[in-house]
Amino acid sequence: MTPKLSSQIESKLRGLRRAVASWLTLRGLSIVLLWLVVLLALSFAIDWWFTLEKSQRVVSMVAAVALLLYLAWRFILYPLAFHLDDDTLAVRVEERHGELHDSLISALQFARLKDLDKLGVSPQMVAAAIEQGNADADKVDFSDVLDRRAHRRHGLLALLMVLMLGGAVAGVLTNDLMRIWFDRVILFGDERYPRNTQFQLTLNDKGELILPRGDDWDAAVKVTGIVPGTVYLDIDYRAGSDLTQLMIKQTDDKSGARPGAPSRKGGAKPAQTPTAPVAATTASTADASAKPTAQADFSATVKNVIEPFRFRIRGGDNRTDWIQVALVDRPTIESFDLVLEHPQYTSRLPETVWSLRPASIAASQSGSTELLPPGSPAQREARTGSSSVYALKGSTIRFKASSNKPLVSAELRNEKGVETPLKLENVKVKGADGKERAITQFTADIGPEQITNGTYSIVLKDTDGLDSKRPTRFNVRIRPDKEPQVRAQLAGISSMIVPEARIPIATNLRDDFAITKAGIIYQWRGESDASPKGEGVVEFTEVKFNEQQAVTEKGFNYLYPWEVTPLKLTVGMHLTFLVEATDNDTIDGPKTGKSAGFFVRVVEANELRDELLRREQEQRQEFERLIKNQDDLIAESRIALTANKTESINLSPALRSQLMQVQKRQKLIGDRCLAIAKQYDQIGQEVSNNKLEADDGPVQTRLYGKVIGPLETIGNKSVNVVTAQIDKARKALDNAAREQDIQELINLQSKLALELRDVLKFMVRWSNYQQAVNDLYAILETQGKVTRETMEAHKARLERGIFGEDKPKPKNP
Q1: How far apart are CA 123 and CA 112, in angstroms?
Q2: Which of 293, 436, 631, 651 has its CA 20 to 30 A from that of 52?
């Protein structure tokens, strides 16, 4: 049987194994605790100096934990994972104690041998070796193989680190600075370290800054505490680019009083949310250029904000966290229909005078109530309407609109500062992409009592606190309902009439909407103040004005033949009159319009005949001058014929100018013929209207058949033939053709002169005839007057013979 090791050696080897594990554990723990304290100190220092963001703190914490786990594995778990066998421990002991002379390792190895006989080993030698090993092992201390000094250092280091960690825990519990560090680094909170410089910004409850898209951003920050000389605005765009901008100091108040707001030249303002201090710490150092002031305002302008970004403010010993900027659209009106309802008396349907439909919006507002049926003519025409509304007094303006986003308020304002809140209704609509989105619809009625001249604006405010930068505006102008326009002229009558005359009045009536009645307002009086006077009204009862739609457009023409015989006017009286019309205005009316006044004098028939004869003689004298002018034109044409013989093929400027002058003067003769015919026609109408002769009487027959008709033929036809021939001669290509054309012109002019003289002969004959007729009428009237006076004298004498003698008057002594 092989001898065994003593239990003392086995016990010492197990103790040494435990001692090695303890030594390794204490060493690894001290290293891990050392790095833990170092990392915590570094996290405090780095976070203090650089104010790390939460993401940076999280990454740092993950890296620190990973390092500690690696150290724990490397210096604790990994060494302990290796099992130290007895041979290894024995070798280490023998290395430490040389006096053993390998007896311990030999005893261990021999104790494990079995079947010594088969191995050819002497059992006595093995037993002696084991006994020697047991004896030598009892004399030494196995734990000497460990470095006790290093073990104590490791223990002291671990204890020191534990004490420091305990101090840190106590600091977290008792010190605000340590508590903030623990909240930020361990708990990943957002509490800020106290600083000498503090920043105050306007943010929403989410810690974001709301800015309107496309506006300029006037970044403003209030700096309190120790105000640095420079403050910077750092901008980080999502696209990867960044920008640093120096902020301009606006105020510097050393007294501690609240400074004024930063100066703004325009641009977007952030949403109105409570002011939140985003940095307030007490650093041990400050910027070298800092000055101990109470507070100051700094600002910087960022143009045309259209890209999302984040920003931070830094200056002195402080800087803010990165603040996210949320870009939102300002509230605007997407659809707008403005309807004008006219007063009832106008009988006009409501019309959409202005409609907005941006091309980018294709939303279907299902369930909404339209002010006008979709696709109606009024709505189609309003697509290109105007924002200027011209409304009659008594009108009502209604509009319906929808915004691009939900609103919290909408107000209608006018120039006088009157604000009218609008009723809001939040609805959901589907866009062109089929997705639903929330909008706000609102309506308003501006009644007749509220409408005023001026500009109305619709101001919107959304849920982000942004208002409409460019409010929708429309102008209202109160358009008056004008009085009727009345134009009247006498047709075939002059300023002299006989008591039995008929006065034709040609009237044009026009109004914005309708005329209810019209008529003649007249007055008559005698020559002296003591003469009788009278007045009256003649209504146009034959016309139903409510059926005359043309009254409101081009006007209504009406010829009224006014018979003045019922007025029983006498010779010497004066008659003044005008035409008056009344409209249907029920708001400020009815209004009346009047024509220009007319004045006529009542005369005897003979006086009127003499006046007509005088006017006829004036026209005849004018006609004689025309004939003289026609003869002069013939002479000039003959001169042109002579001058043409010396011309070259081309027409000279002098001859061309001469022919053009002849053409103009020839046309003027035709115009004058028509004017004289019109004057004779006026004379004929006055004869008819004053009933001096029947319409088919000899004067009318001769006048229209022998004077007016031929003159109109000459003016409209004969003269045109002559002027056309002049134009032909002027455009002739050579002398021969031009000579032939001028000769033909002379023939036509001579023929025209004969036509004019034929009319003149009848004018002279008709004038002499009319003079004789007038003389005969005068004789008859004188004879009638003598007869009336004779009859009155006989009547008076007869009365005296019946009722008393006709005694002669006594003669004077």
Answers
A1: 13
A2: 293
What per-residue string of b and e applies to 398-414 under the rule 16 or more CB within 10 Å gives b? bbbbbbbbbbeebbbbb
Q: Which residues contact 485 (CB under 8 A, 6 or more apart)?
A: 508, 509, 510, 511, 555, 593
Instruction: Kindly report each contact of residues 763-771 with a partner whose C-beta sits within 8 Å and lies 24 or more positions away, as own/partner.
Output: 763/616, 763/620, 763/623, 763/707, 764/620, 766/616, 766/702, 766/703, 766/706, 766/707, 767/613, 767/616, 767/617, 767/620, 769/702, 770/609, 770/613, 770/616, 770/699, 771/613
Token pair, residue 218, equals 């006037």
C-alpha–C-alpha distance, residues 607 and 774, integer Å: 9
pLDDT digits (tens, 9 = 90+) for 719-777: 999 999 988 888 887 888 888 888 998 999 899 899 988 888 888 776 655 555 555 55
Q: Which residue has the tokens 């002696």?
A: 128
Percentage of the chain lying above the pLDDT 90 cut: 22
Within 8 A by CB and 6+ apart from 132, the residues are 103, 106, 107
**443/410 Cα distance (integer angstroms):** 10
Contact 450, 436 (CB under 8 A): no
**In sequence order, what are the residues at sequence separation of 6 or more whose Cβ sits closer than 8 angstroms to the Cβ of residue 248?**
298, 299, 300
Rounded Cα distance, 766 and 120, in Å? 189
